[in-house]
Design brief:
The chain has 18 helices and no strands. By secondary structure, it is mainly alpha-helical. The chain starts with a helix and ends with a helix.
Length: 382
């Protein structure tokens, strides 16, 4: 029975050791991710390493999918990520990516996309963004949006206050761009990107709600309604003065900060990287994190966003699983320590019992020896 109790304790120790060995890699990753939750680049590295351990073909498969979707920029982003992580990609697949990038960068393709951005005011790559920004720098893009949305407002129709506020902020930033000789061009590009993303419905609901509230503060709606209602083609200068007076530039700080972060992402990760950020970000803090990620990872950013979505920006998805891994590791440690305690107590108790039994036998032996001698002496004399 005593041996059985000791054996149970030893078995508990062995089970705890085995469970701890199995849980350790997951618990270690979970702890590292919690520690890196405020560092987007470090968090992304940990997530990528974990994903590649589970699926060695993850990057190659995503490159194939990007090429099939005719997205050379995304395929190249995954190729850059593979090089960074020392993941082997076949020469044939690498050549296909390089050929696709060369085709997308050809003069005819770039000219076509630039013209599209200039005329339509929408962008989904660097060339079309250049056209969009060019149009906004010549102010007709922002003026067009202000007049259109201002007319809707004056007529009591549905008005996109976000487009209106972005266009208003754009007019002010454009003026600053000229004064600083391009010094705030990234902000100008960021405003154009946010506006374009809004037009094609590529901004998340959370970011749209926040930006909409911020945009409403930029526009004095009654004054703009009056300015648009009294607008006259015969007095363009007076009309523009009235329209400008309806905008409160001092209230545009939040939108300008958002545009600055979007512009930073566009510079480091490309136009599509910025647009995908706007699609997954739920607020300006997410966009700021994405800007830090883009500055650290550059062209790899699109691939990272494709793999992990908003989870690349903050520790949101999977937090419960990470917590459970840590909790499991703590339970295993507790079980191991409890098994050591129980085994030590039982071994100590068994040793004390054996020691006590030995002393008792020795005492009995010492107590019985004189009596035997006394009994044997008279018998011998007789």
């Amino acid at each position: 029975m005593k041996r059985a109790r000791v054996s149970i304790g030893m078995a508990g120790m062995l089970v705890s050791i085995a469970a701890g060995a199995a849980l350790w890699p997951y618990a270690s990753d979970a702890y590292a991710m919690f520690a890196a939750q405020d560092e987007p680049a470090q968090l992304a590295d940990l997530q990528i390493s974990s994903a590649l351990r589970n699926d060695q073909l993850l990057i190659e498969r995503n490159i194939e999918q990007a090429l099939a979707a005719d997205d050379a920029d995304l395929a190249n982003s995954f190729l850059e990520l593979a090089r960074e992580k020392n993941v082997a990609i076949s020469d044939g697949l690498t050549t296909r990516v390089n050929d696709a990038v060369a085709e997308a960068s050809s003069t005819s393709h770039v000219a076509k996309r630039f013209a599209s951005g200039l005329v339509t005011g929408t962008a989904d790559d660097l060339a079309s963004l250049s056209g969009t920004v060019a149009g906004d720098l010549f102010v007709f893009g922002d003026v067009r949006d202000v007049v259109r949305e201002g007319k809707h407002l004056a007529m009591g129709e549905d008005t996109d206050h976000l487009i209106l506020g972005l266009a208003a902020a754009g007019l002010a930033v454009t003026a600053a761009t000229y004064v600083s000789v391009g010094g705030v061009a990234p902000v100008r590009a960021g405003l154009s990107l946010v506006k374009d993303a809004r037009k094609v419905g590529r901004i998340s609901e959370g970011l749209t709600a926040w930006a909409g509230r911020s945009a409403r503060q930029v526009v004095d709606a009654p004054m703009l309604q009056e300015a648009v209602a009294s607008a006259s083609a015969l007095r363009p200068g007076q009309t523009m003065t009235a329209i400008k007076a309806a905008f409160r530039v001092e209230k545009a700080g939040a939108l300008v900060r958002l545009a600055k972060d979007v512009g930073r992402i566009g510079e480091k990760a490309g136009t599509r990287g910025a647009l995908e950020t706007l699609k997954i970000a739920e607020g300006p803090k997410d966009v700021a994190r994405a800007a830090r990620l883009a500055e650290a990872k550059g062209s790899q950013t699109r691939a990272i966003l494709k793999l992990f979505g908003r989870g690349a920006l903050l520790l949101a998805a999977g937090t419960f699983n990470l917590t459970m891994w840590l909790f499991g590791a703590l339970l295993t440690l507790f079980g191991f320590l409890s098994s050591i305690k129980a085994t030590t107590e039982r071994l100590t108790l068994a040793w004390l019992r054996r020691s006590k039994a030995r002393r008792l036998r020795k005492q009995l032996a010492m107590a019985g020896a004189p009596s035997e001698v006394a009994v044997a002496g008279p018998t011998a004399c007789g």
